[in-house]
Amino acid sequence: MKITVKIIAALLIVAVLSVLVTSFFAVKEISDSFDFYVKQNVSARANVMLSYIGELYIAGGWEAVQAGLQMAHGRRAGGPRGPGGPRQERIIITAPDGTVVVDNNWEYLGQKEKDLPLKNGQEIYLNGQKIGTLYYQPFTVYGLLEESFISSVKKANFFGGLLAVAVALVLGFFLSQRLLAPLKALIAVVAKFSSKNLHLRAPETSNDEFGELARAFNRMAEALERNEKLRRQMIADIAHELRTPLSILQGNFELLLEKVIEADEETLHSLAEEVKRLSRLVEELRELSLAEAGELKILPVEVDVNQFFSEVAAPFTSLAEAKSISFETTLPGKGKKYTFDPDRIKQVVYNLLTNAFQYTGEGGKVKLEVKLLHRKLLIEVTDTGPGIPPEDLPYIFERFYRGEKSRSRATGGSGLGLAIAKSLVEAHGGKIWVESTEGQGTTFKVVI
């Protein structure tokens, strides 16, 4: 069922229910009001009647009462009804023994009270002594008026209901068209959306749920478009990274076969380095694919934090001296333990330190700081290199992503180090992020 039909149906249901509920309470209120009015009127009329009956009774007993009532209602015994006709009020009086002694219609005279459909009687007292019971029925015109008025109300509600249904149909149609316009626009974009149309975006025309849906779709589309660009770039980068060592190997082997160069130690060492570079790239790609697929095995063990990070940092001391870079480490005291996979975390720290030394020039500074805070391990690697441009920061952990300054092939590396570090940290349930000011330096932070 289309949403338009659902909206119209919902409005129709609301309209019909509103009319029914309104009619019910209106009729009930009218009926209750009429009943209250009739009861009040009957009570007042009965009180007047009691006084009048008392006067007649004193004057001549029940016969005087019967005659007085007949005269008041314009009808003789056995004669036709007076001008009031069938709408006149009914007055019946029974004696203390239950015998009907007064009936302004002569119908029940002499009969027993228990054999008659009489109710709501009012006892008649004279000088403190009960002389009878009055049964008073008012003019039936009240009931007729009530029925007529209620009928009019029902008729008005019926036509009002028809009008409400018509308004609900029209309003439902136009409301659904207006509400669903953003959704229809989104559907049109989604229908055209494919790998060849990743640039399409849904119009963000409102601030309601449909607008939020359009914005969510656009965020997804932007992510897909960016991922598609990264995928293509990754393929190109992989091809380039593989082509470079393969071209060197191929060229050197051809020269060796043609005996242009000799297979001396220097040539063989150069070829071996290219093979290592190629093997390292393939291994990094394998590790990254395993990590992203959640298939990378993490083997956590309890590690002495000070000893572990001292051993990881040791090889970089000589590198710092060779490049005239100040290398500082700040580690927790000896004996502090923490549980993680030492091989994987060593790889993370190695990648971060390698990256820091790579972009820090002579006279610069690199710092490794490790802290144990609130049952978490915090690792910070800070350098005074050129920093990372703000536009590169959101993508710094992407595979093969290279900024204009901070990550270029001229500095070496496969472009996978930070992506692998991120995957390894997340495999530990941790988080890695970067803070950088262009021209001042960069800090990578890891929490596991």
From TrEMBL:
Residues 177-229 form the HAMP domain. InterPro entries: HAMP_dom, HATPase_C_sf, HATPase_dom, His_kinase_dom, HisK_dim/P_dom, HisK_dim/P_sf, Sig_transdc_His_kin-like_C. It catalyses: ATP + protein L-histidine = ADP + protein N-phospho-L-histidine. Residues 237-448 form the Histidine kinase domain. It comes from the Bacteria. One of its GO terms (molecular function) is phosphorelay sensor kinase activity. It is found in: Membrane. This is histidine kinase.
